[in-house]
Fold:
Amino acid sequence: MAHLPPGPRSALPQLRHMRDPFPYMVALAREFGDTITVPILGAEPIVCTADPTEIRAIFSADPLAFASATNEAISVILGRGSIFLQAGEPHRRTRKLLMPAFHGERVRGYAARMQQATVRWSASLPRDRVAPILPVAQGITLDVIIEAIFGEQDPARVRSLHEGILGVVDSFNPLIATFAALQREFFGLGPWAKFRRKAEALEETMRALIALKRDAPGDDVLSLLVAARDEEGQALSERDVIEQLLTFVVAGHETTATSVAWAVYELLRAPNALATLVRELDEARSGAAIPTADSLVNLRYLRAVCDETLRMHPPVPLVQRRCARPLSLGAYELPAGTMVAANAFAAHHREAVFAEPFAFRPERFIEKSYTPFEYLPFGGGHRRCLGAAFAGYELAVMLGTLLSSQRFELAEPAPVRNAFRIGTYGPETGVRVRTLS
Ligand code: HEM
Structure:
């Protein structure tokens, strides 16, 4: 048996923290140290580290030291060619192809569309009534992906793609991913048949869109994917393009939406921070009803609010890797096959780096800068989030636009917990607010 870092002997205490396990991870780090082995109920243990030196060791290790840590079950939705499931040389090649599409300057060009989607969706919030903000944020982020990534601008077709994607997500029954035996049609009936019908309809729409971009490329990510060639001059196959598009939906939709909902939650509980932000937004207005999307992305306090939200509520709290060969982590030699994680949640709550870690204090990102091994909401190294610049713009534009055009009151009588949602974590209640008229 390999000698792994210390940690609780049993996974049973976790049962008490099932719904919101991450504050418990901080307690474990305080009890056992920054590097711990966390037993997982019904699965293998994960070695988690919040120590910046060891996080650096993970993020700067040779990419070939790791296999993909993504649960195989996700291939049922995304297909096997998704960058999530790739490792080694195929992963490097795909990243190289996709990277230019997410470059900072290119992403800036999407800011106006992000703002239009926010204005459109926020108008649907009922006045003087209580409603959760998360569904509105999800509506915006999905439309942004359809418009900026897929390059679809026609309102009717945006709506139909939006419904098509939600149809696939809603018809996905986790049992069909877990039990391969259920992945067959029973005379056109059953969960698999329902899921495949929805998925095929969506893929059909995507194929039509791909054909369109081949003939008339636009300034969207899909057009770049269709035109991209690898080092041997090879284009991506139609199947590959579809799988990467679906990956962007999964990676970029819920993560950004939950972050906006958390930002609204934290701001409405921190009147001083809200007042500072509203002042900054008012100054940026220059006589217009709302500041332009371009001006929003340059606002210092708004950026700090986004950074602080991702610090307190990283949508991916554990950035995981599976060791393909032995890995030295401090005093430990982890054997091949071990699951290892940079513990973003615990790293973001280390007293030594972030004073009063459970307090929402955007100023800390103006007063000081942090290394990528202390602050890691987008992961790091050879798998760092490809959409980080895109998400940074989107968060600033969505939040800045929402708070310039509406006033909200928090309608949550008790603290909102983090809860597991499709593939990520987010506010359990969706953050209920009253929109003031
Ligand atoms: C607040 C929003 C977001 C957060 C916090 C976030 C966070 C992350 C994290 C932690 C990872 C894993 C990194 C690692 O293993 O080191 C990741 C991967 C990824 N993200 Fe994001 N993400 C966000 C939004 C987006 C958006 C908007 C897109 C694209 C539209 C996107 C595309 C991707 C892709 C393609 C990967 C896989 C990269 C790879 O395996 O090489 N993400 N993201």
Notes: The first helix runs from residue 22 to 32. The pocket of protoporphyrin IX containing FE is lined by residues 83-84, 95, 149, 247-248, 251-252, 255-256, 259, 310, 315-316, 319, 377-380, 383-387, 390-391 (CB under 6 Å). The radius of gyration is 22 Å. The longest strand covers residues 43-49.
